[in-house]
């Protein structure tokens, strides 16, 4: 008897019991559901929730693999001066397997904990409430390890994932009912509950926290951190674009994020309207700040000068902006649903992201808070867009009947 048949037998055995959702979820995760609609009108389409989630995961895999490599690369860059001298892009030392091994050793546990704890909570709620296990956490489980620092303690991640799944999703009714992005809810919890592990210049490179204050201390300051302190940035634009910079595990490579964006747009999973409008909003805010500096309204003695004076388009390739615009802002559950609403929603995310980034030097990254804020206002935006359309149609109807 094959595995599929065994699972089907277990489903029939436990049908009608509290454990039925658990077996159904395992069967659906591994295979296509064997139930089909026999009557009534229904949509005939090749896609379903699981395929949609798997498509997003495929778009995230390159960021995950590169994040593992970059984690080791940043560590070796800081700890071995001889390697640092030889780390040209085409050098053998650059592509040394130790870079990937260090990253794999640190990132893989984050992925395992994220999926293990998150899915356990999903299964628990499914059994208690007697509903099917949704596939919504498949993407959240992959996003979480990519948006946290490399050395975040695993027990903190466990607490945050439980909080994010329960408070961010299950209390609203599960997948499709939540008003906040679950992955960003988890990150926000970590930021406010354990701020020293989510900001500063010691959490973005493996070993920097452990060696702080010692002769062999490691500097893990990000580009945003340097700019917030009005310091010079020691990375080229190409380093920023390719992702060879300190930062959260999967947020550094704008190139791979851009490839992921094109893939999501091609598969019609991600909204190009939201992605483009988010970029436009960020560019608009960046241009405004550049104009303020050019007009002489603020000088280099101000604590806001570093980020205000940053080239407006540089904001797109530093920090977590690109990752947030592609994978977070486009969440189909928490984003605006109307086409006009998507333009407004995305533009405000980009605009507010750079606003927070500049005026909050203690936390020079605003995309997380901007997306969560607009998650709350997305239904309001859609409401007024729909009401506006209704009024226009009512006016046309009155003209025709007059």
Shape: globular
Low-pLDDT segments: none
Number of helices: 16
Helix content: 55-70%
Order of helical and strand elements: HHHHHHHHHHHHHHHH
Multimeric organization: single chain
Q: What portion of the residues fall into strands of 2 or more residues?
A: under 5%
The total of beta strands comes to: 0
- What would the average pLDDT be, to the nearest integer? 84
- Major beta sheet, specifics? none
Structural class, by secondary structure, is mainly alpha
Rg calc: 23 Å
Termini separation: 73 Å
List keywords for this structure.
single chain; 402 residues; mainly alpha; 16 helices; globular
Structural features, described:
By secondary structure, the chain is mainly α. It has 16 helices and no strands. It has helices at residues 3-13, 20-30, 49-79, 81-86, 97-129, 137-146, 154-168, 182-193, 223-228, 237-242, 254-266, 272-294, 305-308, 321-328, 339-359, 367-401. 44% of the residues are buried. The model has no long low-confidence stretch (mean pLDDT 84).
């Amino acid at each position: 008897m094959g595995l599929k048949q065994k699972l089907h037998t277990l489903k029939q055995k436990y049908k009608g019991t509290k454990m039925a959702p658990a077996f159904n979820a395992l069967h659906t995760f591994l295979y296509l559901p064997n139930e089909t609609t026999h009557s009534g009108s229904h949509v005939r389409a090749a896609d379903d929730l699981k395929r949609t989630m798997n498509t997003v995961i495929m778009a995230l895999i390159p960021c995950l693999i590169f994040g593992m490599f970059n984690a080791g690369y940043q560590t070796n860059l800081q700890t071995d001066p001889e390697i640092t001298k030889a780390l040209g892009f085409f050098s053998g030392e650059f592509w040394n397997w130790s870079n990937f091994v260090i990253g794999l050793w640190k990132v893989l546990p984050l992925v395992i904990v994220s999926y293990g704890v998150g899915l356990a909570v999903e299964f628990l709620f499914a059994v208690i409430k007697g509903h099917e296990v949704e596939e919504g956490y498949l993407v959240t489980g992959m996003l979480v390890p990519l948006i946290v620092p490399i050395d975040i303690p695993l027990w903190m991640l466990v607490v945050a994932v439980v909080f994010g799944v329960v408070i961010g999703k299950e209390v609203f009714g599960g997948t499709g009912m939540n008003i906040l992005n679950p992955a960003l809810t988890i990150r926000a919890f970590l930021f406010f509950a354990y701020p020293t592990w989510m900001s500063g210049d010691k959490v973005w490179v493996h070993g920097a926290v452990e060696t702080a204050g010692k002769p062999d201390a490691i500097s893990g300051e990000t580009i945003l951190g340097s700019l917030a302190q009005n310091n010079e940035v020691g990375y080229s634009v190409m380093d920023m674009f390719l992702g060879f910079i300190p930062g959260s595990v999967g947020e550094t490579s704008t190139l791979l994020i851009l490839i992921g964006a094109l893939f999501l747009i091609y598969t019609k999973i991600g909204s190009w309207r939201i992605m483009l409008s988010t970029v436009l909003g960020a560019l608009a805010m960046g241009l405004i700040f550049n104009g303020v500096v050019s007009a002489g309204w603020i000088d280099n003695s101000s604590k806001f000068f570093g980020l205000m004076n940053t080239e407006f388009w540089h904001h797109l390739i530093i920090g977590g902006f690109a990752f947030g615009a592609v994978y977070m802002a486009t969440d189909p559950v928490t984003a605006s649903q109307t086409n006009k609403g998507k333009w407004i929603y995305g533009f405000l995310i980009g605009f507010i992201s750079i606003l927070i980034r500049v005026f909050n030097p203690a936390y020079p990254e605003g995309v997380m808070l901007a997306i969560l804020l607009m998650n709350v206002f997305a239904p309001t935006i859609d409401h007024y867009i729909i009401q506006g359309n209704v009024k226009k149609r009512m006016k046309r109807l009155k003209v025709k009947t007059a």
